[in-house]
């Protein structure tokens, strides 16, 4: 099976560019792809709040609902703001596009860097959390958690490499399974609360009945619960993946996602408070609520299955957003051009590969431990939120249309102020737990992207048609590289003759331990090519490129106003895996010689049958 056939079997048949419109997402598919990250956070956001409030004793748990309501209000403000962003910038790119257009290049790169880092961490932490849910139910699998996490990332990458429609089909069922399961839990629990039959969970020993609750504790719980907001921005980054009209469908999907998110988040928080759920290492809050309502029956295990699946598939949202952002950055010249290329299935395959690789590296480094990764998580989101909101304020203020956008300015300014405060609070409380890594990571990415842009600008300036064409020397000096005497070598010799060079030479780099082979090769050369001198260069350290470069430079100095042309004979295997059976010497030589001035390289392939 050839590589092309294997790729087609693995990823599906290549799609022509004209099918780009057909590969766009419906609202149902878009909700499945872009909502999984945000919705999955409801599986642990309430628990993160309770883990902090437990330090204040039983009385502190009464603050869980006000905190959840505050976060829900913040979600609504941010969603309204991002709906405005979608309509103002339907080309996608989210925070990066908005900030760069309104606050300048460096601010845009900061927003893009924080967004890319958060996408990578989202993929890693979501997979780690999903694997943790599975190993909690089946402790025997714990030693294999890292391997399972890597396999999940590979599966998600494969699903997205098959195309956006394919990934929508693959991941729609688990997302809607989780939504239906959580709605069932919340509606049933609220009904039992209304009729007065809502059970209370067994009390946990060691929990203080009363304690002081300070503002710092509440702010810390608030910052932990803000993990419920991660993933909201993904829809605005991938607007162009939706069917036309893209802005309308993307904003509608975002509104539906936010409504579901707020309902589940508030519902789980309400039930956990009313049922007196207390976070425990051995069991999640959702598990406690579900067991209290249904007992350990089929419904309970279905809810646990839905939760585990949504946590694992939450990593799919970055696979939809990360490649889109990298493609926009590449189009603007801040990332390598390869990120802008569409793959055979009309997706940005290089972005998917890089995201999968980065997530796997993090999972391997932190041994797929959720608690080690999560302190790095969410801080970057609020940095992007804040910059995006401020950028939108500037956008509305610069708008020259007759329509006054006072309400839009207020929404974005209010949201920007809130998210800036949340960013500061979250960064402070998570600083010592690893959030400090965000700053050097963002700075590194900003400088890297600036360096890429400077390189492309330099290349463009040097290749501009206005520049004078470099003079081409009239004479040619040809050097034929000879590794061995075979049909491919003789073909290269005949090709070199057709170039009518002023000087025609051949060179062989010989290792001292192969003296007999070298002597035999010289005899073959004299028999088959008796009119071209063969220079044999001894290499005592068995090095090829160093002596060759020294020889070429010596030839170049010998004749003035000559172009040195290096002819490289190369045989080409018919099957792609045959390449691995050879040393790829020709490739190494090209890499070594391509930076030499006034030296041209010509490959003469001999294709094997």
Summary?
With 609 residues, the protein is an alpha/beta fold.
How would you describe the overall organization of this protein?
There is one protein chain. This protein is of the alpha/beta class and 609 residues long. It has helices at residues 3-11, 27-40, 45-53, 64-88, 94-103, 105-137, 145-161, 164-195, 215-225, 234-237, 246-274, 285-294, 298-313, 316-331, 349-365, 370-373, 379-398, 406-430, 438-462, 487-497, 515-528, 545-558, 585-593, and strands spanning 475-481, 503-511, 534-539, 562-572, 599-607. It has a five-stranded parallel β-sheet, with helices on both faces. Helix 23 links the parallel strand 4 (562-572) and strand 5. Helix 5 packs across helix 17 (379-398), helix 6 (105-137) crosses helix 15 and helix 12 (285-294) runs antiparallel to helix 13 (298-313). The protein starts with a helix and ends with a strand.
Count helical runs: 23
Q: Unreliable runs, pLDDT <50, ≥5 residues? A: 16-22, 206-211
Distance, first to last CA: 16 Å
Structural class: alpha/beta
Overall pLDDT score: 81
Radius of gyration: 31 Å
Q: What best-fitting shape do the alpha-carbon axes yield? A: elongated
């Amino acid at each position: 099976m050839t590589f092309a056939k294997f790729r087609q079997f693995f990823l599906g048949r290549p799609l022509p560019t004209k099918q780009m419109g057909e590969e766009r997402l419906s609202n149902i598919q878009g909700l499945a792809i872009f909502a999984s990250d945000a919705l999955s956070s409801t599986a642990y956001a309430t628990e993160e709040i309770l883990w902090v409030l437990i330090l204040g004793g039983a009385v502190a748990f009464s603050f869980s609902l006000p905190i959840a309501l505050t976060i829900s209000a913040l979600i609504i403000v941010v969603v309204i703001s991002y709906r405005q962003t979608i309509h103002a910038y339907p080309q996608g790119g989210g925070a990066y596009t908005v900030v760069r257009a309104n606050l300048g290049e460096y601010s845009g790169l900061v927003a893009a860097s924080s967004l890319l880092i958060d996408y990578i961490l989202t993929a890693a932490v979501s997979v780690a959390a999903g694997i943790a849910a599975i190993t909690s139910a089946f402790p025997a699998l714990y030693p294999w958690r890292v391997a399972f996490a890597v396999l999940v990332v590979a599966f998600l990458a494969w699903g997205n490499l098959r195309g956006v429609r394919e990934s929508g089909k693959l991941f729609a069922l688990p997302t809607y399974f989780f939504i239906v399961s959580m709605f069932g839990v919340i509606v049933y629990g609220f009904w039992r609360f209304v009729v007065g039959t809502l059970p209370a969970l067994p009390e946990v020993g060691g929990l203080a009945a009363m304690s002081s609750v300070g503002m710092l504790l509440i702010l810390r719980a608030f910052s932990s619960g803000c993990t419920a907001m991660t993933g909201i921005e993904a829809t605005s980054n991938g607007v162009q993946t939706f069917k036309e009209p893209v802005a309308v469908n993307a904003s509608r999907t975002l509104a539906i996602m936010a409504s579901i998110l707020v309902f589940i988040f508030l519902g789980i928080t309400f039930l956990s408070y009313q049922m007196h759920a207390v976070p425990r290492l051995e069991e999640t809050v959702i598990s406690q609520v579900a067991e209290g309502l249904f007992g350990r029956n089929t419904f309970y295990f279905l809810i646990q299955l839905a939760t585990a699946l949504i946590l694992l598939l939450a990593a799919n949202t970055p696979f939809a957003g990360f490649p889109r952002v990298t493609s926009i950055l590449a189009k603007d010249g801040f990332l390598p051009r390869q990120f802008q290329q569409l793959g055979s299935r009309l997706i940005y395959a290089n972005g998917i590969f890089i995201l999968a690789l980065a997530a796997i590296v993090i999972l391997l480094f932190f041994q797929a431990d959720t608690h080690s990764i999560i302190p790095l998580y969410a801080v970057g989101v609020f940095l992007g939120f804040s910059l995006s909101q401020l950028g939108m304020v500037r956008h509305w203020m610069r708008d020259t249309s007759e329509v006054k956008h006072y309400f839009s300015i207020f929404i974005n300014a209010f949201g920007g102020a809130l998210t800036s405060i949340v960013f500061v609070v979250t960064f402070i409380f998570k600083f010592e737990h690893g959030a400090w890594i965000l700053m050097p990571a963002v700075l590194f990415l900003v400088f890297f992207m600036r360096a890429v842009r400077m390189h492309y600008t330099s290349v463009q300036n040097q290749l501009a048609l206005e520049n004078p064409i470099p003079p081409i020397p009239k004479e040619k000096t040809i050097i034929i590289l000879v590794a061995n005497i075979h049909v491919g070598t003789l073909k290269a010799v005949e090709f070199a003759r057709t170039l009518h060079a002023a000087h025609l030479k051949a060179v062989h780099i010989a290792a001292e331990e192969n003296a007999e082979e070298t002597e035999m090769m010289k005899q073959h050369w004299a028999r088959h090519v008796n009119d071209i001198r063969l220079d044999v260069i001894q290499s005592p350290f068995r090095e090829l490129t160093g002596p060759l470069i020294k020889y070429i430079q010596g030839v170049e100095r010998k004749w003035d106003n000559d172009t040195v042309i290096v002819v490289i004979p190369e045989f080409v295997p018919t099957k792609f895996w045959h390449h691995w059976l050879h040393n790829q010497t020709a490739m190494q030589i090209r890499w070594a010689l391509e930076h030499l001035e006034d030296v041209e390289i010509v490959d003469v392939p001999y294709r094997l049958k």
